C-alpha cells in the first residue's frame, strides 16, 4: 500500500483522527507526554492542617452529629488540589472524635486503616480483641476485620485516621458491612496484637546518636504494617535541620511533639514551607524533596508519618536505585 502524497497528508490525518472517537480509540502519539511524563506528576499539593483551626469544628460536630447517625464522626483532610477521599494521591486522612460514653459501631471493610491517637483515651476492639487507646498509640484495623471504638472516659478521644481509600478510585472493590449490634463481642487483648504504643518507639528514637533518627513500624515478623500503608516516626534533635531528601512515596505527617517547619519541593510545583507544631498534620506529594527544621534550640521534635511505600514496593513502582 502506497503512502499518502504530502499535499493530502493533513486532510487524511484529520479524517483518521475524526473517525477514532466513534470506535472508542485514541492516538497515543498525541498524549505521550501525559502518559509517560518527564517527571513524576502527583496531583496532590503540599498542605498543612492546623489542629487549632480544625478542633473547634470537630468539637462542634461532636455536639451536633449523633454517633449513631454518623457511624464515624470524622472531618476529612481533603487535599486542596483534589477531592475526597484524597489527602495525597494514595492516602486518606481524617480527624475522628468519639465523645464520652459513645460507641462508634462495629463494622468491617476491605480498606486497611491505621489510627494515631492525638488526644484522650478510649478503646478499640478488633476481631474480638479489645485494646486501650492512649495518646501516641498506633492502632491497626486490617482488611475485613470487625472493629468498633468506644470512650468510657470523661473527655473526647480524638485520633488521626489513615486509610488506603484513594486506591479504590482505580480498584473499585472496597465496601463495608455493619455488625448486627453496636459492639462486636470482645475481651481484653494480652498482648494487644494491633496496638503499637508510643513509649517504646520514643525509646528507640532517643537511643540513637544521630540528629535525625527514623523508626519504621513493623509487624513482629519484620514486615511493614500493611501491603499498602507504612508508618514511620522521626526524631529531630534540638536545632536540627535535616538533609534534603527525595522520596518516591507520598506522606501524611503528624507532629506529635515540638514545633518547626518542613520545606517541600514537589516534582511539578513550587517550593512550599509548612510551619507546624504539636498536633498539626500535613501532606507531602510523591517524589518531593523534603527538609525538616526543628525550631527549638533546647527540645527535640517528634513526627509520625504515614506513607505509601509498601504499595509502591509490592507493585515494583520504586526506581531500583531507591529501593
UniProtKB/TrEMBL annotation:
It holds the Pfam family Cupin_2. It comes from the Eukaryota. The keyword Oxidoreductase applies. GO terms for molecular function: dioxygenase activity. The keyword Ribosomal protein does not apply. Residues 95-161 form the Cupin type-2 domain. Keywords: Dioxygenase, Oxidoreductase. PANTHER family: 1,2-DIOXYGENASE PROTEIN-RELATED, CUPIN. This is Gentisate 1,2-dioxygenase. The lineage of its organism: Eukaryota, Fungi, Dikarya, Ascomycota, Pezizomycotina.
Amino acid at each position: 500500500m502506497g503512502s499518502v502524497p504530502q499535499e493530502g497528508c493533513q486532510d487524511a490525518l484529520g479524517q483518521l483522527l475524526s473517525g477514532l472517537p466513534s470506535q472508542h480509540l485514541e492516538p497515543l502519539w498525541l498524549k505521550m507526554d501525559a502518559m509517560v511524563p518527564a517527571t513524576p506528576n502527583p496531583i496532590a499539593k503540599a498542605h498543612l492542617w492546623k489542629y487549632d483551626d480544625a478542633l473547634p469544628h470537630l468539637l462542634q460536630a461532636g455536639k451536633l452529629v449523633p454517633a449513631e447517625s454518623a457511624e464515624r464522626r470524622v472531618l476529612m483532610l481533603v487535599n486542596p488540589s483534589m477531592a475526597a477521599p484524597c489527602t495525597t494521591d494514595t492516602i486518606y486522612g481524617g480527624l475522628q472524635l468519639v465523645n464520652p460514653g459513645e460507641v462508634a459501631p462495629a463494622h468491617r471493610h476491605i480498606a486497611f486503616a491505621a489510627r494515631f491517637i492525638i488526644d484522650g483515651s478510649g478503646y478499640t476492639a478488633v476481631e474480638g480483641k479489645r485494646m486501650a487507646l492512649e495518646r501516641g498509640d498506633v492502632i491497626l484495623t486490617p482488611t475485613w476485620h470487625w472493629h468498633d471504638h468506644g470512650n468510657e472516659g470523661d473527655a473526647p478521644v480524638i485520633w488521626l485516621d489513615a486509610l488506603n481509600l484513594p486506591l479504590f478510585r482505580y480498584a473499585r472493590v472496597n465496601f463495608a458491612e455493619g455488625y448486627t449490634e453496636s459492639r462486636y463481642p470482645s475481651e481484653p487483648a494480652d498482648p494487644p496484637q494491633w496496638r503499637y504504643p508510643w513509649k517504646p518507639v520514643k525509646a528507640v528514637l532517643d537511643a540513637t546518636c544521630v540528629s535525625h533518627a527514623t523508626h519504621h513500624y513493623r509487624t513482629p515478623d519484620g514486615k511493614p504494617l500493611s501491603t499498602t500503608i507504612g508508618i514511620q516516626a522521626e526524631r529531630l534533635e534540638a536545632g536540627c535541620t535535616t538533609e534534603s531528601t527525595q522520596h518516591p512515596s507520598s506522606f501524611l505527617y503528624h507532629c506529635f511533639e515540638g514545633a518547626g517547619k518542613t520545606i517541600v519541593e514537589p516534582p511539578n510545583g513550587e517550593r512550599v514551607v509548612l510551619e507546624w507544631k504539636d498536633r498539626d498534620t500535613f501532606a507531602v506529594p510523591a517524589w518531593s524533596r523534603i527538609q525538616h527544621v526543628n525550631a527549638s534550640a533546647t527540645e527535640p521534635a517528634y513526627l509520625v508519618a504515614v506513607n505509601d511505600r509498601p504499595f509502591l514496593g509490592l507493585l515494583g513502582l520504586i526506581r531500583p536505585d531507591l529501593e
